[in-house]
Amino acid sequence: MAVDQNSEEKTALKRRGLMFILSSPSGAGKTTIARKLLAADDEINLSVSATTRPMRPGEVDGKDYHFVEQPHFDAMVEDHAFLEWAHVFGHSYGTPKAQIWNGMKEGRDFLFDIDWQGTQQLNQRASEDVVPVFILPPSIDELRRRLIARGTDAPKVIEARMERARAEISHWSEYRYVVVNDDVESCFAKVREILHAERMRRERQTGLVSFVRELMAGPPPGA
Ligand SMILES: Nc1nc2c(ncn2[C@@H]2O[C@H](COP(=O)(O)OP(=O)(O)O)[C@@H](O)[C@H]2O)c(=O)[nH]1
Ligand SMILES: Nc1ncnc2c1ncn2[C@@H]1O[C@H](COP(=O)(O)OP(=O)(O)O)[C@@H](O)[C@H]1O
User: Fold this and answer.
1) Is 25 assigned to a binding site?
2) Does 47 belong to an annotated binding site?
3) What is the mean pLDDT of residues 21-31?
4) What is the mean pLDDT of residues 115-131?
5) Tell me, what's the pLDDT at 222?
């Protein structure tokens, strides 16, 4: 029956969701690239982290981050509510578990803006589902210029971020992909290509084995 065939085909080609990670030293542009990707791609959802850092102008609670007090964050750690969490720049950041696991099972993809510590933890927990991408600035001077131009941090905070940048960059080789964010449009295009190619990987297409089996079970060519 035609209806059955259609639904069978859909099942056969279903794929498991992936965890697309963007990391970089602060100011290299990962939030910019992440926002462009979310706007351009209907199939990827942002993993909204919880953080104890203060909200920046223009940020929205529940959309950019869940802004929480330290006791609330600590209680979530106690309850094992995070897939991963870490201290960054004197604040706590963590990925709430609930939204991710259910979505992944339904084949939804998630975008993570997390640091190298979180990437290591996700790699340990779900390496097959993880696609780690590291964004590099074109130069250290340009990194400082971008942090200043962003206008969200006091000079002391900018210097702290610059000091940390080298330590963060030292983790570049733990990532499957590394992209230099010189021109934002060309960096975005590369990141998008990575996402598209990763979606096509054989291992992610959960129904492929039965699909190919059925394909091979058909009549031989010319029959
Ligand atoms: N491990 C981990 N890192 C996070 C999480 N959320 C954000 N981060 C990282 O924390 C760092 C600081 O983020 P943020 O305060 O937004 O400043 P930004 O680096 O200037 O965007 C960045 O490297 C983020 O990728 C999280 O849930 N887990
Ligand atoms: N390719 C680029 N060229 C020039 N400025 C950029 C580029 N990418 C991002 N920026 C700017 O640099 C600043 C830092 O970018 P942001 O995305 O906030 O970095 P991160 O999330 O890595 O801390 C922002 O003001 C952003 O508009």
Assistant:
1) yes
2) no
3) 96
4) 94
5) 75
Query: Where in the sequence is the domain holding 105, given as residue range(s)?
Result: 14-205
146 lines ligand 2 (CB under 6 A): yes
pLDDT at 10 > cutoff 60: no
ipTM: 0.96
Report the domain count for the chain.
1
- DSSP assignments along the chain, one per residue: -HHHHHHHHHHHT-----EEEEE-STTSSHHHHHHHHHHH-TTEEE--EEE-SPPPTT--BTTTEEE--HHHHHHHHHTT-EEEEEEETTEEEEEEHHHHHHHHHTT-EEEEE--HHHHHHHHHHHGGGEEEEEEE-S-HHHHHHHHHHHT-S-HHHHHHHHHHHHHHHTTGGGSSEEEE-SSHHHHHHHHHHHHHHHHT-GGG-TTHHHHHHHHHHSPPTT-
Q: Is residue 43 part of a domain?
A: yes
User: What confidence tier does 207 reach under pLDDT thresholds 50, 70, 90?
Assistant: confident
Looking at all shown ligands, the one closest to residue 50's CA atom is 1
* CATH code, domain carrying 102: 3.40.50.300
